[in-house]
Amino acid sequence: MLEIKDLHVNVHGKEILKGLNLKVPPGEVHAIMGPNGAGKSTTSYTLAGRAGYEVTKGEIDFFGEDVTALAPEERAARGIFLAFQYPLEIPGVSTMNFLKTAMNSQAKIRGEKELNAAEFLRAVRAAAKELNISEDMLKRPLNVGFSGGEKKRNETLQMALLKPKLAILDEMDSGLDIDALKLVAEGVNKLRSPDRSFLVITHYQRLLDYIVPDVIHILAGGKIVLSGDKSLALQLEQNGYDAVIAKAA
Amino acid sequence: MTGSLSESLLATMEKRRGAVAPWLGDLQGQAQEFFKREGLPNRRVEAWRYSDLAKALRDDPLPDATPVFAPELQQAAVAAFVNGVLDDKSSYARIGAVNLRTALGEKDSPLAGVIGKVYPQADHPIVNLNTALLEEGLALRVPAGEKVSLPLHLRFLWTSAGSDRHLRLLIQLEEGAELTVYETHDGAPLFSTVVTEFTLGKGSKLTHIRQESFLAGARQAAVTLGEIAEEATYRAFYFSQGGQFARHEALLKLAGETAHAELDGAVMVADQRHCDNTTVIEHAAPNATSNQVFRSVLAGSARGVYQGCIKVGQVAQKTDARQLSRALLLSHKAEIVTKPELEIFADDVKCSHGATAGELDANALFFLRARGIPEAEARAMLIEAFFGEALDKIESDVLREAVAKSVNAWLTTHAGEAAHVE
Ligand SMILES: Nc1ncnc2c1ncn2[C@@H]1O[C@H](COP(=O)(O)OP(=O)(O)OP(=O)(O)O)[C@@H](O)[C@H]1O
Ligand SMILES: [Mg+2]
């Protein structure tokens, strides 16, 4: 489903990704770990199509289509979803209105039927309940005054409603207490399916105890330097990046 | 300078002096003298530095499309001014409003003590011009304690046909009275001035929703003059899309204790349009409060001007006066000029002013787009949110929706524009 080939990305004229290769087959969960500044968030933003992340070389194939030239909304409609490391607060835009606009915009781009008000409400209520998101939170402006955990739950809610084919979770675990972490991880696990893949970016083994990955990649210096199964996370936890990367080289 | 225009205006003043009512002749004569001396306001006059009316009138009027007129408000008393002439078939009499021309012409007109006397502006070029050229308008006095349930819709329909027009509106709210005025301007006056004088008696409340949806060629200078007595409230929302020249001034005097003025401005200008909001708020009594927030969205090479002056007299202790200008620039060629001025002569006061100008938040925009919302729509959502707080303060659902419609109409045309600028 996703195949990144020799991806080079410049941010503000500086090369951050330097030949990244990555393949995620349908239904699999892949984790990306790596030291601070390695280029993990850069990878996720580039996949989502953020302006300023200039692809100078390489391709991002998504279901066989190179998406590097597509606008963020086009990619979203094709099924790429980025859960933000730091979800934005957007005053004045109600969460409900945002959710509805997002769902219907995607449907429109895909040429599908938009939801009517009742269908939409039903879908939101059901998804919100599972994630312990109150009606009151839904009425508030998007993420405004939400706690760190509430913001991440809200990201998970969006993912549940938008039903992406590839979900990129950038440090989903940052700022979460154990209970919130479990809740979010459960939400993610419920969405696991043979035709949905996940790219889970994290620094910690802990998240991967809850969302068990099929493959773990280590990103350092703008490239994937090592890939392995879930035992890799344990090695990292014990020995640190430098040792593990040095051993692999 | 505008020799020929000034001359023709003077000739018209000569004709109109005392024409509506002989007793008005003196007042009009003084106004005419002022005009003779000062002419049309231009950028050499400090208060008109960023809005040169003389030049705008010298320029050729921009050609315009056929105007689309906003619908008449249902369940309202309507005063329709078609090219500056009050349509006597409209329903303003339902709430006791009267044709100003008729009322001024009456013997011992009760308006003699009102017109030009509310918050006198001997040195104001537009008020003087309007007085000297005055011929049409509306007057309304709401008796003590009466809470008028029907809003008054002042519906100005301008086509570029016809000459210049100068309207005067007089509104008096007696003690405890309440009224909502919905003022709409559509089309494009060649040159018009509208001067509104209102007095708010003790504990009264005037809600004023002003919605300018001019075409590009409109040239108008409007002034709202008000005196607000103790415990009274003036609650205003000014929406404007600007024009070739569009300026509205609110000159308000908080004359009694705990009088309150609350002004929200929403400016949406594109292309080469010009929009000026100027306010002067005089705190002339203790414990009065004023709060103004002007929000502007500017696209193309439009220019917005916000001049906000707060005057606090020596007696006006415990004044609380705030003003804020916030601008979103959708293009690098658009411009906002903000000029705050504080003249404070009391020591125990709280006064603040602030100004921000910036582009739409790129992070927020990316967030919305990454969820599948197309760029133009995402921009529109953020701009709508920018105005949201002000719109939410409009109490009447009908009026809030009417304004929201203008906001959305503008967004449909212009929200996507900036996408092509960078
Ligand atoms: N806007 C920017 N301007 C300049 N440099 C940037 C910008 N954004 C990112 N970088 C640089 O790109 C590099 C990779 O950053 P990135 O955020 O992708 O790292 P990361 O792997 O996500 O790190 P962390 O674990 O701290 O989240 C860093 O050196 C960072 O300083
Ligand atoms: Mg990061």
Automatic annotation (TrEMBL), chain A:
InterPro entries: AAA+_ATPase, ABC_transporter-like_ATP-bd, FeS-cluster_ATPase_SufC, P-loop_NTPase. The keyword Nucleotide-binding applies. Keywords: ATP-binding, Nucleotide-binding. It holds the Pfam family ABC_tran. Residues 2-246 form the ABC transporter domain. Coiled coil: none annotated. One of its GO terms (molecular function) is ATP binding. Belongs to the ABC transporter superfamily. Ycf16 family. This is Fe-S cluster assembly ATPase SufC.
UniProtKB/TrEMBL annotation, chain B:
InterPro entries: Fe-S_cluster_assembly_SufBD, SUF_FeS_clus_asmbl_SufBD_core, SUF_FeS_clus_asmbl_SufBD_sf, SUF_FeS_clus_asmbl_SufD. GO terms for biological process: iron-sulfur cluster assembly. It comes from the Bacteria. Residues 160-386 form the SUF system FeS cluster assembly SufBD core domain. Coiled coil: none annotated. This is Fe-S cluster assembly protein SufD. It comes from Rhodoblastus acidophilus (Rhodopseudomonas acidophila). The lineage of its organism: Bacteria, Pseudomonadati, Pseudomonadota, Alphaproteobacteria, Hyphomicrobiales.
